[in-house]
Amino acid sequence: MSRKVAVAGVALSDVGRVDNKNAYELMAQASRRALADAGLSPSDVDGLASTGQGTLPPTDVGEYLGLKPRWIDSTTVGGASWEVMLAHATDAIAAGHADVILLTYGSTARADLRKGLRTANVNWGSRGPLQWDAPYGHTLISKYAMAARRHMYQYGTTIEQLAEVAVSARFNAKDNPEAYYRDPITIEDVVSGPMIADPFTKLHCCIRSDGGAAAVLVAEDRVKDLKSDPVWVLGTGEATSHMLTSQWDDVTVGPASVTGPLAFSRAGVTPSDVDVAEIYDAFTYMLLLTMEDLGFCEKGEGGKFVESGALRLGGSLPTNTDGGGLSACHPGQRGLFLIVEAARQLRGESGPRQVPDAKIACVSGTGGWFCSSGTVLLGSEEP
């Protein structure tokens, strides 16, 4: 079998400040909403993909949701997990292993921190290869900061250009009622903020929020049953790069340099065909480098590209139209939220932040410190 696959329904749970629900409740809320968006019921679901919470994901998630799937995935590669699992789900549906697959995620990262829970902070540990990094105190943010410095040195990228990524995200967030922060910020606001890891000040870093997201994928023969317009999966790519910082061949190149060409080739489109992009932005440099790696600008030209206002609504490539992880929401792993926003844009449901006549979206997730990448091309028209 080789069936076409569509995103049938998408939804978010309550997002931002959520003090009265746990992660499972957020997953359940987002899942119910996504199924309702598709016009389907839990009994239609025969595949489940989830990670990031619990003891044995997705086993415990399936039990909580009352599902008994015949296809499962819990690939865990950080923020890119959701794009990678979407790729796996697409292959499974195309091959006939499942007909309706639910991707779901929830996190109370902000609420847990407020409660002072030790589990609220990410600890990569020091087992396995990481034992060679741990003695040097390399944190996630310090690795990105170091890589950003190298890009600045090698290509002349300025701190103001990196700051524009955060300013653009806030510009886009202003019309999103679900965004955590909506008040405008300036380049000076970003540059003059408290230093977190040189050269990153506070606003160069993603926010911390609560929330859940879900997406439902279906085989082409189920499209006629849908309540909402289908969004078609055109092509995907997945890759890993390294685990140890010392094994990172070039900190100015990320694994999206592999997944981007794969996804575009399989979709039969080029970067110039893309109308809207949803790109993982845990830090400003993450987005800038990914734009280069995906081919939206030449290597080393990312600074000039974002400086032009390209990322803003009305720009040449509206990116993170909901405000991204820098302004809208970032509950631990954001990759599934990218898929939700892309689908909404392609269905023309984004209200004042809608990109006019958007037909093709590029979604790209990043995991770890550029350790993994998943890139997905989605389209409003059947391939």
UniProtKB/TrEMBL annotation:
Domain Thiolase C-terminal as annotated: residue spans: 237-379
SUPFAM superfamilies: Thiolase-like (SSF53901)
Protein name: Acetyl-CoA acetyltransferase
Record CDD domains: SCP-x_thiolase
Alphabetized InterPro entries for the sequence: Thiolase (IPR002155), Thiolase-like (IPR016039), Thiolase_C_2 (IPR055140)
Superkingdom in the source lineage: Bacteria
NCBIfam families, per database record: PRK06158.1
